[in-house]
Amino acid sequence: MTIRRLSGSLADVGRQAGVSIATASRVLNGSAHPVSDATRERVLEAARELGYSPSALARALVTRRSRIIGVMVGDIVDAYFAEITRGVEDVAARAGYMTIICNADRRTDLEIDQLAVLSDYQAEGVIFAGSGFLDDPRGADLAAAVKRARERDISVLALAVRDFECPRIVADNRGAAYDITDYVLSLGHRRVAYISGPPGLYASRDRLEGFRRAASDAGVEAGLVHEGDFSYEQGYAAALQIIAEADPPEAIIGANDETAIGALAALRQARVEVPGRISVAGMTDTRLARFSDLTTVSVPVYQFGAAAARRIVSGESSPSETVLPHRVVPRSTTARRG
Amino acid sequence: MTIRRLSGSLADVGRQAGVSIATASRVLNGSAHPVSDATRERVLEAARELGYSPSALARALVTRRSRIIGVMVGDIVDAYFAEITRGVEDVAARAGYMTIICNADRRTDLEIDQLAVLSDYQAEGVIFAGSGFLDDPRGADLAAAVKRARERDISVLALAVRDFECPRIVADNRGAAYDITDYVLSLGHRRVAYISGPPGLYASRDRLEGFRRAASDAGVEAGLVHEGDFSYEQGYAAALQIIAEADPPEAIIGANDETAIGALAALRQARVEVPGRISVAGMTDTRLARFSDLTTVSVPVYQFGAAAARRIVSGESSPSETVLPHRVVPRSTTARRG
DNA sequence: TTGTAAGCGTTATCAG
DNA sequence: CTGATAACGCTTACAA
Description:
The structure is a homodimer of 338-residue chains. Chain A contains 13 helices and twelve strands. Chain A is an alpha/beta fold and 338 residues long.
């Protein structure tokens, strides 16, 4: 005798109710196929007695709908990605879907591997949360993998600029950077430094462009750029360097909140008053920013995830690009030039 | 004609290589069954040509090993849970497993639902990351659900105190709270306030006990307790209340880092010098704590996740309780009593 | 060393 | 309205 699943199978339910496996199936999944009320009741009763619960695996195999959504993030510990994931999971769970999380540490080769695994599980959708790289050596491979995945009917979505074909739900990075820079300049600051994101990332490039354009539109120096990598540590280090300069700037803008908070910490450590002496601003408005009361530009990160998940569970074919709005959020780390 | 998976099936590979589906299967999964080098080569070649990749679903169905790990967290945006999840995913991915994340917001009913879904997918393991509640009205239901899951051969692990039967990998909450309190007292402070975790949670109770015991062992007032809920906001609010008192304490300890950082923010906002006037300490040492340079007690959260995942992928039957060590991490938010 | 065939637990087609 | 039965794609005795 073979080992039986404790929860039983449709066969068990059918036997117990004295009906065929087909009939049992029909009442237990909301099939449109007609079933008499009497039989229905018996099947339901049998299922209850046996504590029956259908095998999602078997069902997925035959229906080709796995109810699995994959979300590819850089690092789930990063609040930016965590908030996206939360958005995904909230709508996924409500629809009975499972959310698989894959940390790729911004490495394209890992993304390729993880995408393969997700494909093997016939994930219904895969969400790429992070930005892509300019001139990515593995870019073509990833694009090919994505293409195959889509041909297999997996719906792929990107929440940032990516070098492969798929619908996107994105923020206007350039615009967001422009707006926060513009806001800082509107406070009367003329010399503002910028701590960039990781070189090569589209998101970094776009935000930097936004900063530069805002600066030059305002007729101020746009070259005070320090290279960062979205990390707290680089923000900290860059800020230290910045205040050591002969003629330090009046404001610092970080390419993301984490970097800006690193800068903030460095300034406080060095007893440089914020915003008294130097104003600081970040981007994306993650929880960290709220905690630090950091001026930033809010992009609806949670909504990115939720919207992407909604498209997947609803099976809608999406418009190729949706841009979600951002808005400047003034807080206590910036002040009018004293 | 029925729609074919683009990646093909074993049948396709077999046909292409001119061998049976069984042989193809044998070479394509590292089966011990002998296969001649010639055939093996042909199968491999065929698989390559067809871009074949096995269906994880079908495989899971027959082998009863889904290679799925579920992790039940309160909220993935909480750094504590995110770091655990990262630990899980790192070892899971290396072993070809997928990590499913379930946000339960500390609601037992949601945990029950999510566990059911995970069971339907025949998850190989489920990790409960968060603490349980004293006198949980749904506690018995969850315990029953866990029992059924385990009977179905799902290995359940808890990373905190839980009211159901299963192996645990935990920290010594009482000891950790005791040690950080003891450390703060060793700095010469005599009046120290405590901002607790959510009432009813085992973790809250244990940490509070640790605080109280350390206080009374040192012969100082152990009653300066303010109710919190592990949130930044409550830490902030409590700190405001604390400094408004007639005779404010010399130190504040938060039941977790987030609360402590909330308190920190309130103090800074109110221009109370930290640690000059009041020392502040937290617990668990999440990234937030490092960012804020907060004195805290480090518990190896990432390791919790990693260790749990390792047990699941290795299939080892675990010792019923493993306690991972903690250690006090002095940083800049505490100082010797001036 | 290779192949045949019986599942794994569903759904869905097609007859009754 | 109900029931066989053929998939879904794979693994694994059991034979050859």
